[in-house]
Design a protein that fits this description.
- The chain is of the alpha/beta class.
- The chain folds into 2 domains: about 260 residues, Rossmann fold (3-Layer(aba) Sandwich), CATH 3.40.50.1820; about 200 residues, no CATH class.
- The protein is built from 14 helices and 11 strands.
- An 11-stranded mixed sheet has the order 1-11-10-9-8-7-5-6-4-3-2, with helices on both faces.
């Protein structure tokens, strides 16, 4: 059967939870909704210029550390606002940056983040994720670095679990009570508290990458408070466990790799043009397993580092081809081995939002086998390996995954068909569950508002007018891509931002 889709041409130039549990969750949500509004009621923020060269105002909003205990300890959220033209103002539009642990307030300080047509009509507001406020920061130690390798023995698995637990326990001891309440549902309640503090009945929302989970949960918890919402490159919070999460990520990287091989076959500029790319990579995998390849420093190239080279996204295809050619012809990479630890600050949030528990070495090996069946070329790479950082972490999944269910409010979901970070099936799952509208970009990429003029135009039109694209609409691949403008935040410590 032929599937007919309506395509937008580019412009000249971009049930996992049973009914009883859902009912209980809804009751709790309604109760905490009242708490949120009451907490922020009557508190008008005091705004001040963020800096002499920034056309943005900054403030803080105080919220409970634990929303279930509104009378308990509090934290201050950093909030930034760029004001609309008063004569044209439609309301407030929250910006939700990626992460985990997005610095949305810092991003809003920069000019030109979203289209001028939006920012003249909406107050653009960003709220830094909890744990990022001055004096209330997640205070984790710098993790020890070593070559990243998969544990192959029970002793190595026990060592990994011990290292992750030690890192997490140190974070917890240094960060205090906020450590156990960094999940996205808590951040969604924070967002509604900011809305109430601003005196707005409703607020719009644009979120990108991990910021889409914040938008989803804001809409689920406070549907009556959402005006219009765009979710760009979406997370799927219905992935039930580490196996599902990691295998779906790996399959996305493999789909993008399939297109890489097609590009190399068709384009003479590819350094591997005319060669059997799959056979070449299979040979490199075997050589890496035997320790026969070297990184730029002369150390044995780890299989995980090779996986990372192979699974580079579309913007890295030319570099990927050159790297693989060099490895095949000389046995030496221009890259150094991955030395990042398995657990980092991002995992402190990630492990509270997802059930990424891996029980033991046998469980890990079984998951890796499934990953490699789904992705024989890219294997366990980048995003597909995320669950390993949660092994042994001393945090519980306080915001467990669950299918969203039909939503009373509408939203526009943007996703590239070959996104290798927030994979396309995730967006399809989300829109099937909620009834929201999916607009597809028929190419790769991540962050569609900053990639495709066609996708940007549809998002702007929806946020300004409420008009949604017809079901099944696609944007064709564009030869030139847009670039997200650089923000103007204050310097910040280096951190992991995965989505």
């Amino acid at each position: 059967m032929i599937k007919v889709v309506r395509r937008i041409l580019p412009v000249a130039r971009r049930s996992l939870v049973n009914r009883a549990v859902l009912a209980s969750a809804l009751s709790a949500s309604l109760l905490l909704s009242t708490v949120t509004a009451a907490t922020a009621a009557g508190r008008t923020p005091t705004w001040a210029a963020c800096g002499p060269e920034q056309q943005a105002d900054c403030t803080t909003v105080t919220v409970p550390v634990d929303w279930a205990k509104p009378g308990g300890p509090t934290i201050n959220l950093e909030v930034t606002r760029r004001r609309a033209d008063p004569a044209k103002r439609l309301g407030v539009l929250f910006f939700g940056d990626g992460g985990p642990g997005g610095r949305s307030a810092d991003a809003v300080k920069g000019a030109g983040l979203l289209d001028a047509g939006l920012t003249e009509k909406y107050d653009l507001v960003g709220v830094n994720a909890r744990g990022l406020g001055k004096g209330y920061e997640l205070n984790c130690p710098a993790p020890a670095t070593a070559e990243r390798r998969l544990p192959a023995t029970e002793a190595e698995f026990a060592g990994l679990r011990k290292d992750n637990r030690s890192f997490g326990a140190s974070c917890q001891a240094r960060s205090g009570a906020v450590y156990a309440h960094l999940d996205t549902a808590s951040n969604a309640r924070d967002l509604d508290a900011v809305r109430a503090a601003l005196g707005e009945e409703k607020a719009g929302y644009y979120g990108v990458s991990y910021g889409t989970l914040l938008g989803q949960q804001f809409a689920e918890l406070f549907p009556q408070r959402v005006s219009r919402m765009v979710l760009d490159s979406s997370m799927d919070h219905s992935q039930p466990d580490a196996r599902s999460f990691m295998v779906s990520e790996a399959a996305g990287a493999e789909r993008d790799f399939d297109r890489f091989t097609g590009w190399c076959a068709a384009d003479a500029s590819c350094a591997l043009h005319g060669r059997d790319v799959r056979a070449l990579i299979t040979g490199l995998q075997q050589r890496a397993d035997r320790g026969e390849l070297r990184d730029v420093n002369g150390a044995a190239l780890t299989p995980l580092t090779l996986n990372g080279i192979v699974s580079g996204g579309r913007s890295l295809w030319a570099h990927t081809a050159t790297e693989l050619q060099q490895l095949a012809d000389t046995g030496r990479s221009g890259e150094s081995n991955i030395t990042a630890p398995w657990a980092d600050n991002a995992h402190t949030i990630l492990c509270q939002d997802w059930n990424l528990n891996i029980r033991d070495l046998a469980d890990l090996k079984s998951i890796v086998d499934d990953v490699q069946r789904a992705a024989p070329m890219t294997r366990l790479s980048g995003y597909a390996a995320m669950g390993i950082g949660c092994i042994g972490q001393p945090v519980s999944t306080v915001n467990p995954p669950a299918a969203a269910g039909p939503q009373p409010t509408q939203a526009l979901v943007l996703n590239a068909r070959y996104d290798h970070a927030t994979v396309y099936p995730w967006a399809q799952n989300l829109t099937r569950q909620t009834g929201w509208t999916l607009l597809t970009y028929d190419d790769g990429g991540h962050g569609m508002y900053f990639t495709s003029y066609c996708m940007k135009r549809a998002a702007d039109d929806y946020l300004l007018t409420g008009r949604l694209p017809a079901a099944g609409t696609e944007c064709a691949r564009e030869p030139q891509s847009r670039q997200r403008p650089e923000p103007e935040p204050e310097p910040e410590p280096e951190k992991s931002v995965w989505f």
